[in-house]
Write a structure and sequence with these properties.
Layout (H helix, E strand, L loop, with lengths): L2 E2 L1 H11 L24 H11 L9 H8 L2 E9 L6 E7 L2 E8 L5 E3 L20 E11 L5 E13 L2 E14 L1 H5 L5 E4 L16 H5 L7 E7 L2 E7 L8 E8 L8 E2 L8 E3 L6 E3 L1 H8 L6 E3 L4 E5 L7 E5 L2 E5 L5 E6 L2 E4 L1 E3 L6 E3 L1 H4 L2 E6 L6 E6 L1
Parallel strand pairs: 4-9, 5-8, 14-23, 15-22
Antiparallel strand pairs: 1-2, 2-3, 2-11, 3-4, 3-7, 5-9, 6-7, 7-8, 10-11, 10-24, 12-25, 13-14, 15-23, 16-17, 17-21, 18-19, 20-21, 24-25
The structure holds (1R)-1-(4-chlorophenyl)ethyl carbamimidothioate.
């Protein structure tokens, strides 16, 4: 649902209700403010002027500008099993797809009818409703070894009421088996920086980069939640979704990620909605599980495991001038066999950077902010 700013609407509505001369039989009604005036004030004004244009009504420029700019939106983020990933409904050419919003990559790709039927069984497949970008291709590989490739179309994409009229939609011709088997997921919508988009011969813009200039504020905010649906907000910050203050840190965009520095966690870190777990250096991981009596590193599972019944300690990190606490409950990711569970905190050694994935993000309200001269991340306790 899109909301429009109140200022222009309130000004315009005040102008419209300027007193007409009283005449016999007229009556007056005391107006009672209904509080914030959201949704589509400027747009309603523009529609009224358009309706009466044939009678000579001329739309004031401020109404026209307000009606076309300053949009906001919000979309649900629904977890898959064990919060493995969070999917959002995205309209592409009028068809709804359920996509993984991924701040760790920058391609918007979908299953398509160009794939063999067996490869796309159970998925919503793009029927190439858009305009083909002849000769354009894409090919992406993810950190978990999965991947996909295909060709490129331009189509209308809507997320939470926010519209990109000419979005590059990357239609798959082939995807790896882990995508085929996850029938809840119809593709990804990347929200890292467009500098790492894989389309060739010309990189394409992410959805956020395409719409950010039309948003009330050039930002989006993630409120992922533990074992229940959360939201992504576009163009505005929802103060009902966090406690305390939002603390901001600078972002290094050189690698195309939302990359930042966390205190007490060596190396660079990325805020990544597309990664399930929280990956930090060995020293931090060992220190955490030293407080979990039944924990041990299980090389057959590729990480720390523990007794599912053991109560886990919280994990707290300082980022900038604020701190975030991840409840211990969130760090019990999922059972692996019998009553043995796999930890949500694992080692980032060998990756090259730390990954603050969903295990961390679901404890926060995280703002991906391009409102300033350089990008920044804002973290608040969710
Ligand atoms: C940036 C993420 S992948 C993603 N969020 N699309 C990543 C990179 C490398 C490794 Cl090893 C693991 C995860």
């Amino acid at each position: 649902m899109a909301h429009y700013l109140s200022a222009a609407a309130l000004v315009a509505s005040a102008a419209l209700t300027a007193a007409a001369p009283a005449a016999k039989g007229d009556f007056s009604i005391d107006q009672v403010s209904k509080g914030s005036f959201y949704k589509s004030g400027p747009l309603a004004m523009a529609k009224t002027y358009s309706k009466y244009a044939k009678h000579g009504a001329v739309m004031p420029e401020n109404v026209s500008i307000a009606a076309t700019a300053a949009s906001t939106g919000s979309v649900s983020a629904s977890p898959e099993s064990y919060d493995e990933s969070y999917l959002i409904p995205v309209s592409i050419g009028g068809t709804t797809f359920h996509l993984d919003l991924d701040t760790g990559s920058s391609d918007l790709w979908v299953f398509s009818t160009q794939q063999p039927a067996s490869q796309r069984s159970g998925h919503t497949a793009y029927k190439q409703t858009g305009t083909k970008k002849s000769g354009y291709t894409w090919n992406i590989s993810y950190g978990d070894g999965s991947g996909a490739k295909g060709d490129v179309y331009v189509d209308k994409v809507v997320v939470g009421g926010v519209t990109a009229t000419s979005q590059a939609v990357e239609a798959a011709t082939s995807v790896s088996s882990s995508f085929t088997s996850d029938t809840d997921n119809d593709g990804l919508i990347g929200a890292a920086f467009s500098s790492i988009n894989t389309v060739s011969p010309q990189q394409q813009l992410t959805f956020f980069d395409n719409v950010k200039n039309s948003l009330s504020q050039k930002l989006f905010a993630a409120r992922l939640r533990y074992h229940t649906a959360g939201t992504y907000d576009y163009g505005y910050i929802d103060s009902s979704k966090y406690s305390g203050s939002i603390h901001y840190v600078p972002v290094n965009t050189a690698n195309g990620f939302w990359e930042f520095t966390a205190s007490g966690v060596s190396g660079s870190s990325i805020a990544d909605t597309g990664t399930t777990l929280l990956y930090i250096p060995d020293s931090n991981v060992d220190a955490y599980y030293a407080n979990v009596d039944s924990a041990s590193y299980d090389s057959s599972q590729g990480g720390y495991t523990f007794d599912c019944d053991e109560s886990l300690p919280d994990w707290t990190v300082t980022i900038g001038s604020g701190s975030i606490t991840v409840p211990g409950e969130y760090i019990n990711f999922a059972p692996v066999s019998g009553n043995t569970c796999f930890g949500g905190i694992q080692s980032s050694d060998g990756i090259g950077f730390n990954i603050f994935g969903d295990i961390f993000l679901k404890a926060t309200y995280t703002v991906f902010d391009q409102t300033q001269s350089s990008p920044r991340l804002g973290f608040a306790q969710g």
